[in-house]
Amino acid sequence: MGLVMINEKYQVRMKVNGEHYLTVWMEGQTVCLIDQNALPFNFSVYRSKTYMETCHAIRSMIVRGAGAIGAAAGYAMAQAFMEAPDDIDFIQKARLTIENTRPTAQNLFYAVQRVYEAGQTSTQNALTEAGEIARENIDDGRKIGEYGNELIPEKARLETHCNAGWLAFVDYGSALSPIYIAKEKGKDIFVYVDETRPRAQGARLTAWELKNEKIPHAIIPDNAGAHLMQQGKIDMIIVGADRIAANGDVANKIGTLEKAIAAKTFGIPFYVAAPVSTIDLDCPDGASITIEERSEEEVHYQTGLSDKGEIHKVMVSNPGSPAFNPAFDVTPASYVSAIITNRGIIKPEKEAIKSLMNMVT
Ligand code: MRU
């Protein structure tokens, strides 16, 4: 089933070949995920029938991006309840296994906690809660887009890092959502897309999304950002977030910090877009955020399309040299101009964050 039916309450936007898709959804006991490792060369859907298979999808980044990871983790927790509704040990082990897939994205822990609690009363409640998290995720992305659009001037030239679009959420996205809404409102905009080594989420996924949306863009090497800023070619930067600490420090894809430092140097606004479910009040500051380290292999190898149209994995670095692969970095709050959330735009400050979290919606 390609076409995903969604509660009328929630407006969906993502289309692939003219058909509405979500990044993550559930059919019966099966979690369906757009396979992000296959993009942009192949569009396919990965179907996981057990919570363990969903964990594999999160770990191997078939599904990635904080919001999408959160939705998938919530569904994985619901799957565990469906697999063994009366086995407390099984459920607790499942929770730990899901939480150990990827350590940085707050949305994963947020979703698992909610579904685990809901499942204490019934399996059906766990499933309903997981669906609700996915629907909220869509709604949050749309609201981030509406607030963020207000910050985008006509003829803006933007830069973004990694992928924080539909694919990083269930729909809409965080950093790309304001860009989609700006385009919808008829603004003439241009997006510079950081390629985002080593996994190239910018070059592969953001570029694929922007092309689908017919938004003018160019992929730039990761090390080109500061040069473009110095040349006056970038008006604003919008990135997503994997976790925001109580003091406004932001963890996001490795390389984000360098962009923020360059932006401050050249007086360019640096915005972070994220739903409140990415904010972790238990985490006092960026130094307390766990930074995932991924395999050396991701640095050594790249996968791409040959001239003959075949997908190949090739080594791109010196054989035998060790590599180091931190997946995220922390941008101090002082480098962030504002945080665009689903409840409005705030300064990255402790008090503002606290009142945002306490806001009655
Ligand atoms: O390692 P990834 O691809 O999961 O990292 C994704 C990012 O860093 C995104 O920028 C981030 O999740 C914010 S968008 C939800």
Give a quick rundown of the structure:
By secondary structure, the protein is an alpha/beta fold.
Main features:
361 residues, alpha/beta, Four Helix Bundle (Hemerythrin (Met), subunit A), Rossmann fold, 2 domains, 7-stranded mixed β-sheet, 4-stranded mixed β-sheet, 18 strands, disordered N terminus, binds 5-S-methyl-1-O-phosphono-5-thio-D-ribulose
Describe the structure.
This protein has 361 residues and is α/β, with parallel strands linked by helices. The protein has two domains: 15-141, Up-down Bundle (Four Helix Bundle (Hemerythrin (Met), subunit A)), CATH 1.20.120.420; 145-357, Translation initiation factor eif-2b, domain 2 (Rossmann fold). It has eleven helices and 18 strands. The strands form five sheets. Strands 8-7-6-9-12-17-18 form a seven-stranded mixed sheet, with helices on both faces. Strand 3 and strand 4 (30-34) form a beta hairpin. Helix 4 packs antiparallel against helix 5 and helix 5 (123-149) packs across helix 6 (177-184). The protein is globular and about 60 Å long. The chain binds 5-S-methyl-1-O-phosphono-5-thio-D-ribulose. 5-S-methyl-1-O-phosphono-5-thio-D-ribulose (MRU) binds next to helix 2 and strand 11.
